């Protein structure tokens, strides 16, 4: 049975010691989806929102969140990310926006939490900017899509949630 790495031999929470791990390139992609009314999506895509370019603000928020993940998630290592990107894909048929984050670094620990945090905060920012016109938006399917590098090797989700 696998052992949780954030728990020491006495059952206490700990920050994992990565000092003996090799420095390698590590990457991760994560996704979040925001479902909304068709008219809300139209407002976002046409740039007609009173608050400005919703997707640009959500992109910046996601990048900032990735850089601050260790301040948000207990026991996460502070990391020197070399790349963070946030992409949006509008799905007009289903009235939703898919958010995909990507994080990379050369380091001793992975960037899965940074990618998940970036996608989540981008989705929350999109919600915050549009809640005045659509309080019923739903953030769903926050998930890790893939990770590359590190001791545990590469991993990819078998199935991606809609």
TrEMBL record:
<dbReference type="GO" id="GO:0006777">
    <property type="term" value="P:Mo-molybdopterin cofactor biosynthetic process"/>
</dbReference>
<dbReference type="InterPro" id="IPR023045">
    <property type="entry name" value="MoaC"/>
</dbReference>
<dbReference type="InterPro" id="IPR047594">
    <property type="entry name" value="MoaC_bact/euk"/>
</dbReference>
<keyword id="KW-0501">Molybdenum cofactor biosynthesis</keyword>
<feature type="binding site">
    <location>
        <begin position="113"/>
        <end position="114"/>
    </location>
    <ligand>
        <name>substrate</name>
    </ligand>
</feature>
<feature type="binding site">
    <location>
        <begin position="75"/>
        <end position="77"/>
    </location>
    <ligand>
        <name>substrate</name>
    </ligand>
</feature>
<comment type="similarity">
    <text>Belongs to the MoaC family.</text>
</comment>
<keyword id="KW-0456">Lyase</keyword>
<protein>
    <recommendedName>
        <fullName>Cyclic pyranopterin monophosphate synthase</fullName>
        <ecNumber>4.6.1.17</ecNumber>
    </recommendedName>
</protein>
<dbReference type="InterPro" id="IPR050105">
    <property type="entry name" value="MoCo_biosynth_MoaA/MoaC"/>
</dbReference>
<comment type="subunit">
    <text>Homohexamer; trimer of dimers.</text>
</comment>
<comment type="pathway">
    <text>Cofactor biosynthesis; molybdopterin biosynthesis.</text>
</comment>
<dbReference type="InterPro" id="IPR002820">
    <property type="entry name" value="Mopterin_CF_biosynth-C_dom"/>
</dbReference>
<feature type="active site">
    <location>
        <position position="128"/>
    </location>
</feature>
<feature type="domain" description="Molybdopterin cofactor biosynthesis C (MoaC)">
    <location>
        <begin position="15"/>
        <end position="150"/>
    </location>
</feature>
<dbReference type="GO" id="GO:0061799">
    <property type="term" value="F:cyclic pyranopterin monophosphate synthase activity"/>
</dbReference>
<dbReference type="Pfam" id="PF01967">
    <property type="entry name" value="MoaC"/>
</dbReference>
<dbReference type="InterPro" id="IPR036522">
    <property type="entry name" value="MoaC_sf"/>
</dbReference>
<comment type="function">
    <text>Catalyzes the conversion of (8S)-3',8-cyclo-7,8-dihydroguanosine 5'-triphosphate to cyclic pyranopterin monophosphate (cPMP).</text>
</comment>
């Amino acid at each position: 049975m696998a052992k949780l790495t954030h728990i020491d031999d006495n059952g206490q929470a700990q920050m994992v010691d990565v000092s003996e791990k090799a420095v390698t390139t590590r990457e991760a992609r994560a996704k979040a989806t925001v479902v909304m009314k068709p008219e809300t999506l139209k407002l976002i895509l046409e740039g007609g929102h009173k608050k400005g370019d919703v997707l640009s603000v959500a992109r910046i928020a996601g990048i900032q969140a990735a850089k601050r993940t260790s301040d948000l998630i207990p026991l996460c290592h502070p990391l020197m990310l070399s790349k963070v990107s946030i992409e949006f894909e509008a799905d007009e048929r289903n009235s939703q926006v898919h958010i995909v984050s990507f994080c990379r670094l050369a380091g001793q620990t992975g960037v899965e939490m940074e990618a998940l945090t970036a996608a989540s905060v981008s989705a929350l920012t999109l919600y915050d900017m549009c809640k005045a016109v659509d309080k019923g938006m739903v953030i769903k399917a926050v998930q890790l899509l893939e990770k590359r590098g590190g001791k545990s090797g590469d991993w990819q989700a078998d199935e991606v949630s809609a």
